[in-house]
Amino acid sequence: MFPSLGGATANGGPGAAAAEPAPAKDGEGLINLCDMLDKPMCYARNENTSYPLGNLFIGDSRLGMQSDADEQLIIHLTFQEFVKVKSIKFAEWNMGSNPDMNPVNVHIHINRNNLGFEDIEDVDPAQTITLTAADLQDVSDAIDLYYVKFQRVKSLTFFIEDNAGADITAIGGLQIMGRTVATTNMNDFKKQG
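Request: output the structure for the sequence above.
Response:
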């Protein structure tokens, strides 16, 4: 027998609750939030047009994304609705063919629009992560974020400050794991009387 939801017993006996929807729970059913991007609102600064932002989400690290003029990149992602972000996973470009192009210091900003290189260093990030070559491997785990800070996210801005030593930065892919924000649909409630 499967456990029942919402505290009601399966047979409707003692402890049975009224026919109310079970509350949405956090921490269950993590999904790749990149499927929920509002793509026309996403952009990158200093991207190589031959290796653009959209390549991060197609699942082929040989394409990926590269910076253009130098190693710094700004990646701005807007979601279709508010989300809770648990972890992120950057993938190595072209299966590690040039490890010096790997991003190292990444500053993550929440719900900040139109950040450019002229002002992004003046704004405190929600979190800064330092990536190692091992973090970018396919077999490595995603990097957990300060979950309490990422509870109501409409957009993320990644500022890739530097890399492992090359003139340009390359990223093979990006996953953002989390869930949608639990919302109440008032149509689910029946009038009590």
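The chain is about 0% helix and 30% strand.
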